[in-house]
Design a protein that fits this description.
Radius of gyration: 14 Å
Number of helices: 6
Structural class: mainly alpha
Number of strands: 0
Shape: globular
Distance between the termini: 8 Å
Largest sheet: none
Length: 101
């Protein structure tokens, strides 16, 4: 089972990838497929089984690069609620990725 710290690190790398996707994809044309893309694929496959609100959290925070504060403002909720949803997302990934391992 993946530890939550590893999932956080993976999500941080996924967020960075999507924030610089165009440049990184171009760089990989020259250097070959990065291990990072395997991680992106693994989490993309896992998120398909998430409930809609966790899918929204993943998409907003890690693909669209929103902060928890800006996402909370968009939803009209408190940052603490988004923090709670993000924690649920981490636990979802921990469970989901353990099932495919």
């Amino acid at each position: 089972m993946l530890k939550l710290d590893q999932i956080r690190e993976d999500l941080k790398n996924i967020r960075y990838y999507y924030s610089r996707k165009e440049l990184l994809d171009k760089a990989m044309q020259y250097s070959g497929r990065s291990q990072l893309l395997l991680t992106v694929d693994k989490y993309s496959n896992a998120i398909q089984y998430a409930p809609p609100r966790l899918l929204d959290v993943y998409y907003s925070l890690y693909i669209n690069n929103h902060t928890q504060k800006s996402f909370a403002d968009e939803l009209g909720v408190t940052p603490d609620y988004v923090y709670k949803l993000n924690k649920e997302l981490l636990l979802f990934f921990q469970k989901q990725l353990a099932e495919v391992a």
